[in-house]
Amino acid sequence: MNPSLKIVLVLLVVFLLLQIPIFNPEKNYVNADTKVDITDKYEVPMNIQMDLYVACYDCHSNYTEDYPWYYNIQPLSWWMNSHIKKAKQALNFSEFATYPRDTAVKKFESLHLVMKEQTMPLKSYLWLHEEAKLTDKQYQHLADWAKEMQQKVEQTINSTQD
């Protein structure tokens, strides 16, 4: 048998074995109402909440709603799972109310910046998630809201230090 054919067959067998469901990572969905979502502690207008939900929550919360069909293909699911974990480490709206005020200030500041620069959602995410695309107006509203929240939380920190 041709050596290159052997390599292809071995790779195919390994690929097929990896498709066995026991190798799939756990999906990002907590089935409990934690009461520590950003909306539980901070004033989030409905339009802002909806924009965050549609454009951000799949990666930046404990509730990834719709997994695409290709999530069941290895190693794509491992890559996506790793991406979601990193996103949640950077910012998790489902646990935002647990952040200390100084951390919340930094998170709002970062949110303001990425919305102002329109760098989130990631372009690679938007290729397959058309519904997550934000308009310039939505980006501006999110950026303005995040800046306003940053300032409000900073004021509470300053008022307790006086």
Automatic annotation (TrEMBL):
Source taxon at top rank: Bacteria
Q: Which SMART domains match?
A: Haem_bd
Q: Which intervals hold domain Haem-binding?
A: 12-150
This one is known as Heme-binding protein
- Print the organism lineage: Bacteria, Pseudomonadati, Bacteroidota, Flavobacteriia, Flavobacteriales
